[in-house]
Amino acid sequence: MNAPDRLLDWTDANQRLLVAEFARIAALLGDGAPDSAATDTTALRAAMPAPAAIDALAALFKLSDFERDLLLLVAGVEMDARIASLCAQGSGQPQRPWATFGLALAVLPQPHWSAIAPHEPLRRWRLLEIDETAGTGSARLKLDERVLHFIAGLNALDHRLQPLLQPQPPAGAMGQAQQAAVTDVLARLRACTGRPPAIVLDGDDNAGQADVAASIAAALGTGLYQLRASDIPTAATEQAALAALWSREAALLGCGLLIHCDEREAQAPLARLLERLDGLVFVRGPDLALGDTPQLRHTIARPEAPERLQLWRAALADRATALGPVVDTLANQYRLGARRIAQIAAQTPGADAATLHQASRGDLPGMPGLAQRIDTRARWTDLVLPEAQQAVLRQVAAHTRHRLTVHHQWGFAGQGARGLGIATLFWGDSGTGKTLGAEVIAAELGLALYRIDLSAVVSKYIGETEKNLRRLFDAAEDAGAILLFDEADALFGKRSEVKDSHDRYANIEVSYLLQRMEAYSGLAILTTNHKAALDPAFQRRLRFVVHFPFPDQVQREGIWRTVFPAAAPLDAGIAYDRLARLSVAGGTIRNIALSAAFLAAEDGTAIGMAQLLRAAQLDAAKRDKPYSDAETRGWT
């Protein structure tokens, strides 16, 4: 017999038993023979394929026989017109066809007054409601709608909780650390003899925390619903109602609750609610402080690079071999959780390296207003520098590319986490190619490059600068991005002598930067025109320092030869050796070339020496520093 057939059999049998139970209650009210009706219910209960709803309810909430019959009496008023009529007759008031506690005490076996005490099951679990406008004995008794449906054989989430709760999806892919947490929590829960503790899952892997909770619930054979902590009411009476409704649902549905708490201000109401909740409860979120409620804590963080490599290889399966070093790069650069890695692999079948990088990178969370994405199209051929500087820049790229191998596979990370980041300083005059060098490295590695907006990061309010920097570094680590601090001396300047509170807090900001730069696992590039303006403590922590010199005439000629796009129309008479006599940096060369292109477009001609001379003169006028005749002689 398949599951739907068994369900139909149970539903039919439950209805037949309920009819027999109502007949027994009617007999107790004077309509029939109680002994004969009791015999019928006993026979039907024995034939049930699974416990009847009323018996399951009595077992879940440890009801006495009298409390069980009291529920049946009140349910009968709602579902059987004959019982409603008998109740009216029994009370001697035809206009009141409902059950009262006084009537129940008079007709039901083994009565006890404590049945409707507030701390006893019927009231504590809100199975029964009492009309408070009348005395206890003569007050109308009503059955909660959810309980009435359960007794009738319908077991679905209380409609009052449906706007607040959502089913938690099954667990996705999990790493070894997450699986170990599941095993540990299960062992502790199974050894627990009393009320289970709240299971608190903190760390930075939100999806991983939810997957751990779902995996534990599945192993215990329970469902799982999720609730946002921000939806928890703050009023004590409303909290009590929510706790009672959920605790009842946890028993009726056999479900646990996962509470997502990502807002610090929601922690206080959550802590108070936890004191009232029964059953299996998980709480996930960062830096959770939840009072004295018994708790079992586990930190669920995103996996480290070696475990990410294993997850990528498992998710990509046969494709991992074909992709080769790309898999190492993905594991090294992007701090993704197990579920996200599995999703990317499933959503990009047959994808090449660029597609996998794009899917892994995404957009940095929390960055708008603090950093701007730079489109990295420059290549090594676009960068004109002496060979020594070129070699150092390639070493920067190599250190970033091979972090997984050196730090983890070769064990250098085991000697300490400090100094594993790749903080690099580019210094030199304006326009010498510092930003271009950062673009070239980012393009070489296939990583996103973000220029930090220092005006948005630095705040006059105490503590806000540190918060902004924390958001930047955390987001960059997650997405494997390169951070570019242009004009870094504005933020990384020397600490000053403390003369007032402003100096003290400014020095705290610099000290925080020192610590965060040392802990940052990615590539951070600082650029400055004034190396000496940087705090000496920063310079000691730099992995690389690259000087971008002012280009000599040979290098300037190289820049002029690469500055024009392939599609730009060039006059055959352009003399690059003469252009190189102009003593300007690469940034100025690019500005002049662009201005000359607009002049040529206006003239309707190709870009030639005449337009380049006019563009150079316009640039000089802008800076109020004309070029000498020797620099521009022979241009036309």
CATH topology tier name of the largest domain: Rossmann fold
Task: Tell how many strands the DSSP assignment holds.
Answer: 14
Distance between the termini: 98 Å
What structural category arises from helix and sheet content? alpha/beta
SSE order and pairing:
Layout: H1 3-28, H2 34-46, H3 53-60, H4 65-79, H5 81-91, H6 101-107, H7 121-124, E1 128-130, E2 141-143, H8 145-151, E3 165-167, H9 176-191, E4 198-202, H10 206-219, E5 223-228, H11 236-254, E6 255-260, H12 267-274, E7 281-284, E8 295-299, H13 305-316, H14 319-323, H15 325-333, H16 338-347, H17 353-361, E9 371-374, H18 387-401, H19 403-409, E10 422-428, H20 434-445, E11 449-452, H21 454-457, H22 464-479, E12 482-485, H23 501-519, E13 523-528, H24 536-540, E14 544-548, H25 553-562, H26 576-579, H27 586-603, H28 609-623, H29 629-632
Parallel strand pairs: 4-7, 4-8, 5-6, 6-7, 10-13, 10-14, 11-12, 12-13
Antiparallel strand pairs: 1-2, 3-5, 9-11
Can you offer a commentary on this structure?
- By secondary structure, the chain is α/β, with parallel strands linked by helices.
- It has 5 domains: 3-151, no CATH class; 165-299, 3-Layer(aba) Sandwich (Rossmann fold), CATH 3.40.50.300; 305-349, no CATH class; 371-548, P-loop containing nucleotide triphosphate hydrolases (Rossmann fold, 3-Layer(aba) Sandwich); 553-632, Helicase, Ruva Protein, domain 3 (Orthogonal Bundle), CATH 1.10.8.
- The strands form 3 sheets. It has a 6-stranded mixed beta sheet. The protein has a 6-stranded mixed beta sheet with strand order 9-11-12-13-10-14, with helices on both faces. The protein has a two-stranded antiparallel ribbon with strand order 1-2.
- The radius of gyration is 37 Å and the shape is elongated.
- 37% of the residues are buried.
